[in-house]
Each structure stands twice: as structure tokens, then as C-alpha cells.
Amino acid sequence: MPDANGVIGDLGGGSLELVALADGRLGESSTLPVGPLRLMSSGRGDPKRMVVDAIESVRWLRGEAGKTFYAVGGAWRSFARLHMEQAGYPLHIIHHYEIAAEEARAVARLIAVQSAKSLEKMPGVSRRRVDTLPLACLALDRLLAALKPKTVVFSAFGLREGFYHVRLNEAEQARHPLIAFAEEQGAGWRRFDLSPAEIFDWLTPAFADESPADRILRIAACHLSDISWNDHPDYRAEQAYVRVLHLPAPGMSHRDRAVLAMALTYRYKSDPKSATMDTALRLSDGKGKAFARRLGACLRLAYNLSGGAPGLLPQISLRRADRDLRLIVPAELKRALGDVTARRLQTAAEAFDLKSAIVTA
To answer: What is the pLDDT of residues 175-202, one digit of tens each?
Structure first.
């Protein structure tokens, strides 16, 4: 999670590790002896009192109040999975699953007082966790009470992935994980010689006002833009949507997944049925939906103009003006454009709430 800022809590069997994080840099850290297995085996005192005392002893937490809390560790992943089942959440991917802190506390308090037999009957709870989950939820509730964050974000990764990451060279560590994934996977899916960089550069004038987060998604979309070329033409949009929404890729929130999946759906079909994208529509917002439609329509236009061949897109410019979305075409190429190009340009322009225009250079 490259943009993570707040406090990380990694709950293991023996301890709770707390680390402050800001702008990619680690801050204060503490190790507390309140792992569920340790609390169960100690036989000394009230576990709740031990957790409360341990958390209250961490003075630097007061300076991190209000920031996002990032939950790491198998017990808290189990909590997230249970919450997904109870909430009917449509996407069963733990990494970057977000819950409002007050809601997380309410559910954690409920689970903390459940017996092992009661937990066994709950969907989403692993039998390996029924003994330790109540104490893990106790720790989560007390920690959130101290931190008062707005949001809890769950991580599917932990110590093992961190160990591998620090063994990479600095250049590899600096790469954005989503872009690194898209580059590697996209190369395997690509059938044409048209490079993602050429597509990205050609699209850039139309997306001059995009946010840094949207730019990351646009780069990833360009790498994945040929993801369904070998599927049946009638099902390419659906296959692209399913693959992208469920990618085993880090570096994006669930909202980002939804936007990227919708963009690749529009890349293959200009008017997909809303039922096709039901999950993504639920996880996105108005701004994300608009961006996805614009990006997908422009990718669709790019492949129509280039036919997947390199060197053709730079000869034709895509420009976004106040009233229209323009294709600027050399005179000798204008007669080569067909009705399909005009329709796809119009679809892209409508996504920007503009008119379409083809202009001779």
C-alpha cells in the first residue's frame, strides 16, 4: 500500500507490533506482549485489563489519533473475512478491505464475548481461529478506542512479504506495485507490438486534469488493455471485467479495482449492461465511474486507429478542448478513417460530456 499513512498493527500469537507510518517512512514503534496465544497461556490476571494496560503504556499513540489503522496478521484477517460474510460484501478480497472504525469496534465487541461453539457456527470463521479470535477482537476494540481512527484497512500481506521486499534492490523497491504487476502480467497477455507507453502518451492530452491516483490506474490499464484478445468476441468485455476485478495484485484499493475493471470493460464494449458490472458499480463512486468510462472509450478508440500496430498513433493527435474531443488527422490519412472511428470518437466524447470533431492537420 504505497500511500499508507497512519498506524500499522501486526497481531501475532505472542505479541502486538505497533508502528507509525507517514509518507512511506517508519516512525515510532512498540512491541506489546498481548498476542492471543500468550494471553491464553499466561493464566495471570484479566486478559482485558492486560490489553488495556499495554496499549495505554504506548505514549506515542496519542499523537497518531485520528489516522487510518492498518490491520496485519491472520487473526485480524479472519475478523475481516467474518465481517465480509456478515455484511454481504460483494468482493472476497481481504487486501485493502476497509471498514469504518466505529463499525469495526461494534463487531469486534460482539465477537469478543462469543464462545468457541458460537463462533464455529458463524460463516467465514476458520476453526483454527475460534479460540484466539475473541482475544484478537478484544485487542482490536481497545486499540481503536485509543487511536480513534475513521477507517480500518486490512492487509493480506505481512512479515513474510516484507522480508522479501527488503531483499530487493532500491530500484525495484521504488516501483509502484500495481504498475510492476501490470507490466509483468500485461506482457503475457499482449498480442500486438503496440507498446503500452505509446498508448499512454497518446491518451495523456485528454487526461491532463487527472489525479496522481488516476494516473497510476491509467498506466495499469494501458498495460492490461489487450487482456481479452483471445476470448470469444461476444464475451471479451465480461472476461476482462472478471479478470481485472479479481487480479491478485497489490497497490490498489477495492475502489481502484472497480474503476480499473470498468475501464477494461468499456475498452471492449461501449455500452455494457449495468448487471455485468454490478460489483464494481457498488464499490466505486461517481468520479470513478466517469473516469472508467472515459478511459475505456479512449482505449477502444486507440486500438481502432492503430490496429495494434506501433507508430500509427503518434501520427494522429487526440485533444480535449472546451467544447469538443478532437482527432487531429493529417490530410493524407483522413480518407482512411471509417465510420467505426467516427462512432468510437463520439462515444469517447460523450463520456467527457463533449462533442466529437475530426480536424485535418
So the answer is: 999 999 999 999 988 888 899 999 999 9
Coil, helix or strand for 348?
helix
Burial string for 40-78 (b: 16+ CB within 10 Å, else e) reads: eeeeeeebeebbbebbeebeebeebeebbbbbbbbbbbb
The region that residue 69 occupies, defined by phi over 0 for left and psi between -120 and 50 for alpha, beta otherwise, is: beta
pLDDT tens string 59-77: 999 999 999 999 999 999 9
Output the nine-digit C-alpha cell for 339.
465510420
Q: Under CATH, to which class is 176-307 assigned?
A: mainly alpha
Q: Check: CB of residue 61 under 8 Å from CB of residue 32.
A: no
7: β partners: 20, 69
Give tens-digit pLDDT for 209-252. Answer: 999 999 999 999 999 999 999 999 999 999 999 999 999 999 99
- DSSP symbols for 239-294: HHHHHHHT----S--HHHHHHHHHHHHHHH-SS--GGGGHHHHHH--HHHHHHHHH
With contact defined as beta carbons under 8 Å apart, do 273 and 280 qualify? Answer: no
The residue extents of the domains of the chain are 6-164, 176-307
Phi, psi at residue 135, to the nearest 5°? -70, -35
Q: Can you name the residues that pair with 21 across neighbouring β-strands?
A: 6, 26
Fold adopted by 6-164: Nucleotidyltransferase; domain 5 (3.30.420)
| 76-82-87-89 Cα dihedral, nearest 10 degrees | 80
- Closest C-alpha to 181, from 251, 233, 119: 251
Instruction: Read off the pTM.
Output: 0.93
Pick from 47-56, 142-151, 341-350: least confident? 47-56
d(CA 355, CA 325): 6
Q: Which residue intervals of the chain are DSSP H helices?
A: 36-42, 47-56, 74-87, 101-112, 116-120, 133-147, 159-166, 170-174, 177-189, 196-203, 212-223, 236-245, 254-268, 278-283, 286-306, 331-334, 339-351
Q: Render 314-328 in DSSP notation, one character per residue.
A: GGSEEEE-SSEEEEE
Condensed to tens digits (0 to 9), the pLDDT of residues 1-60 reads 989 999 999 999 899 999 999 988 899 999 999 988 888 877 667 888 899 899 999 999
